[in-house]
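Dear colleagues,

For the upcoming journal club I promised to circulate an example of a predicted protein-ligand complex. I picked one with fe (iii) ion because it came up in last month's discussion. The inputs are reproduced below in full, followed by the predicted structure.
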Amino acid sequence: MKTLITNIKKLVQVGSSPRKWVAGEEMSVLPCFSDAYLLIEGDRIAGFGEMDRLDRSKLEETDFLQEIDASGRLVLPSFCDSHTHLVYAGSREIEYIDKIRGFSYEEIARRGGGILNSARRMRQASEEELYEDAYVRIEEIASLGTGAVEIKSGYGLDTESELKMLRIIRRLKETTPLLIKATFLGAHAVPEEYKGRQTEYVDLIINEMIPAVAAEDLADYIDVFCDKGFFTIEDTDRMLNAGMKYGLRPKIHANELDFSGGVQVGVKYNALSVDHLEYIGEKEIQCLLGSDTMPTVLPGAAFFLNMPCSPVREMIRAGLPVALASDYNPGSSPSGNMKLVMSLGCVNYKMLPEEVINATTLNSAYAMGVEEEVGSITVGKLANFYITKPIPGIEFLPYAYGSNLVDQVFLRGKQL
Ligand code: NIG
Ligand code: FE
């Protein structure tokens, strides 16, 4: 089965040679074709180009060919959301009100709210209801243009519940058309029963959880919330070291609440990404330059928690790549809307439309290790893309921040 999309006003983020990521000044370069076509065969991109170069004689008549006229519309590769916690139980709007009343994220965590609140609910919830709730969230983000998503555990905080979360993620991998990666985040917080015994909890993660996760091959990556009031550099060092022995590459929660050293320990262990980065200066930027670690900023969390914005312009000026992700979770970012993430990137971080598109496609694909499969319109990659409503140009996407402009979604070559 072939699908041919014709008369595309602009085909965005096209690429012939595979690119690892775009960094520095290159982040404002977005390769596009005007008046273009896109050809899909099975689940893959089979060709694209300008309309006047479309050779219809090459499209064999025997194959069923569906044709879609995209006049006035743009086609973009699906968003890659490289940082989410979208498997969770219940919601936390009460803490949202506490925040409005002036309590900080750390104060709410100390009062037994925050991650521990979600952990209590996670432990009680059945695998079936957790799966169904997560499935609904996945359907929603898919309709908003996301085609690849990384999902973390980290609300179980005991071996059985962490495994339960990861098994749900595995089931989502099997039952949805999105490209999904799973990250083990046992070190999200110290659970209630280990209060005051943080090192013992770290021992449990190292000696019991990581081997159990690896035995069932449930995770692609390992994460640690390495920050003030959560896990220390020493804890992080030990856990990353243990994870790497089982082939789990790190993706780190770093420098959200302080200059925690999380960036440095992440780079030391060749992390795929270091995420959040509200507190990042010259030292961290220098450490990231020349590494294979993608600095990832989560504008939804900074917006929702009213935190300082990470210095993205300085990072780009220094020559770094930047990825953007949603951090979809019930506490600090209850939305997986990547188009809104682009708008926040533009307004709050002074990123250009071209930069936020690069940051949410190619660069975020790298940040979750799927850059060879998705993240650009490239022959051979998965046909994960969306057709917009009729709009003037790419700038209109982040500009019209409240409108859903995603009209038709294709994942693995099939229209949703
Ligand atoms: O990425 N920073 C740590 N973890 C999450 C928050 C999770 C929660 O509050 O439930 C985050 O923002
Ligand atoms: Fe997070």
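Two points we might discuss: The pocket of N-(iminomethyl)-L-glutamic acid (ligand 1) is lined by residues 85, 114-115, 118, 225, 253, 256, 301, 327, 329-332 (CB under 6 Å). The two ends are 16 Å apart (CA to CA).

See you all on Thursday,
B. R.
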